[in-house]
Amino acid sequence: MTEANQKIGPKIGIIMGSQSDWATMRLAADILEQLDIAHEVKIVSAHRTPDRLYDYAKSAASRKLKVIIAGAGGAAHLPGMAAAMTRIPVLGVPIQSRSLNGVDSLLSIAQMPAGIPVGTLAIGDAGAKNAALLAAAIIANEDDALADRLDAWRAAQSDAVAEQPE
Ligand code: RP5
Questions:
Q1: Which residues constitute the domain of residue 75?
Q2: Going by CA atoms, what residue is nearest to atom 2 of ligand 1?
Q3: Mutation probe of ligand 1 site: the residue of 14, 15, 18, 93 with most atoms within 8 A of C-beta
Q4: Residue 155 falls inside a structural domain
Q5: Whose CA is nearest to atom 6 of ligand 1?
Q6: Whether the complex's predicted ipTM surpasses the cut of 0.95
């Protein structure tokens, strides 16, 4: 990340329920690095550290976070509980769990009651990457320089797709 963007403080918060989620959620952080978006990364468990979750969600608006990306697996209450305690948009990443392959995570995150939305991404790596790209797109609406970087990122992706398989 450039020094200038580091100084302005995080715009996106990446939180996850466990150290074991980092292998997936680091893919979101990698994309934010590529796009030079200031962000922070924390382990915040809805079940094991509920007070940390409360403090994080309650302070998100006053700390001027623009989007929260929350990854969790199994009984994945983290994104929904974070969304319940802040109006900052929450994007949920269902971690691919060992026992049910992430279907448990997906349903836990997607099936929110009306009134408290969580934008739910795909299970696992694709979800983590797309959560970062979606968060970037949201912020880019108000940030022309980032919009240019995101357009360039997408163009590079298109250029990298071969016309024929090798
Ligand atoms: C959830 O439980 C975490 O998000 C993680 O995906 C899952 C398993 O956590 P560990 O037992 O690996 O710490 O809270």
A1: 3-143
A2: 73
A3: 18
A4: no
A5: 73
A6: yes
